[in-house]
Amino acid sequence: MTLHKGAPPAERKHTRHPVNPFYGEADPVSGMETSPPRHTLPDGPLAPHAAYQFVHDELMLDGNARLNLATFVTTWMEPQAGVLMAECRDKNMIDKDEYPRTAELERRCVAMLADLWHAPGAVGCSTTGSSEACMLAGMALKRRWMRRNADRYPASARPNLVMGANVQVCWEKFCNFWEIEARQVPMQGDRFHLDADSAAALCDENTIGVVAVLGSTFDGSYEPVADICAALDDLHEKKGWDIPVHVDGASGAMIAPFLDPELKWDFQLPRVASINTSGHKYGLVYPGVGWALWRDEEALPEELVFRVNYLGGDMPTFALNFSRPGAQVAAQYYTFLRLGRAGYRAVQQATRDVARSMAERIGALGDFELLTRGDELPVFAFTTAGHITAYDVFDVSRRLKERGWLIPAYTFPPNREDLSVLRIVCRNGFSLDLADLFLSDLEELLKELREQRGPLGRPENEATAFHH
């Protein structure tokens, strides 16, 4: 969660101006037709439609979510899903005794995902998103390692977790918060994610697990989960280190089962202990819902599951949060029922087709070099070609934003900080028609960018959303 601080003193003195378009409706306290303060509570209430208008008008300055090609998060659902979520927005997901049917829908979603990922006996839960799900999976990995090393921990052993430098920031947070050594494999040359040999090389008797990412946020590529598991099998045989794998499938776990059924990455591999995904990414649900599943009860230590006597019922829970809305879980169940396997396959295939088409057309422009082509996640990254000296990726991102398109430009992590790229995420609701409009705008901008004397450079303190 982003940290915020109060407004500086100079900004707290808000000049009060007449309300427009609500002339004639006086402030109930002062009797004046004024707007409310921005950084202090108003002295009295506003009319509901006036309060709505103030908030509505300010939010108009946000970007258009449908044109946001930076985010992985779902920006379109069917109207019926929106109605269903509105009907469930007052239900507290944690209160399973008062809302037993909502709890049942959560259980069914877990069962559906367990079946999809080839472990009908898996246990799991919903979360607020993949970040929380990753934290829970990491906690389980650490606790299992602690059990096996009770004679050495914490006196003489410090646990570590192996991952690529391309992981989402939540894994760095986990290692920081839970006092784990983060062992990250840097990028090298044209290798932009973790590979089997690099993962095995960083493991030792204190490794609690290896994180394999099915769909890197940097370029949309899958990490070779099966190869990583095979390398760890070899380590187990040679060294005796039994190191589990967690698959961060925030995006890919809802793509691969439908578009890449021959790919082995899930619970079919015995070394995979847990998997997470984001229901609000390619699970096709509005934010915030995620899912965490463990192969079996052995993979999720019982002592991590709290049993709470809440409102008269015994409630097992394993989550970092307590109260949270049930609307997203209901929407996930709706989407599972609505689409089924064939529907998900059609939606994800259409999205991948759009991504591959866009990548091909952008590559054909001659100004760019493609790093990926949208043939794993419907996501691709590209950089300026070697002969382009008039502009850089940050100029392209900046100019596209002028036309409403949000395309992140960013540098890669160690050891490829020299590489700056643009990345496009295609989602359900981003059609070929919208892709045509984007390409048309890009081609028009390139005519101007080619006339620049040189790149304007990366804006200072520019935030990007590439990792979400």
What are the SSEs and their pairings?
Elements: H1 9-12, H2 48-59, H3 79-88, H4 100-116, E1 123-127, H5 130-148, E2 160-164, H6 169-177, E3 181-185, H7 196-201, E4 207-213, H8 225-239, E5 245-248, H9 256-259, E6 272-278, E7 290-294, E8 306-310, E9 313-317, H10 327-364, E10 368-370, E11 379-384, H11 393-402, E12 409-411, E13 420-425, H12 432-449
Parallel strand pairs: 2-3, 2-4, 4-5, 5-6
Antiparallel strand pairs: 1-7, 6-7, 8-9, 10-11, 11-13, 12-13
Explain the overall architecture:
- The chain has 468 residues and is α/β, with parallel strands linked by helices.
- The chain contains twelve helices and 13 strands.
- The chain has a seven-stranded mixed beta sheet with strand order 1-7-6-5-4-2-3, sandwiched between helices.
- Helix 11 crosses helix 12.
- It is globular.
- The two termini are 13 Å apart.
- The mean pLDDT is 90.
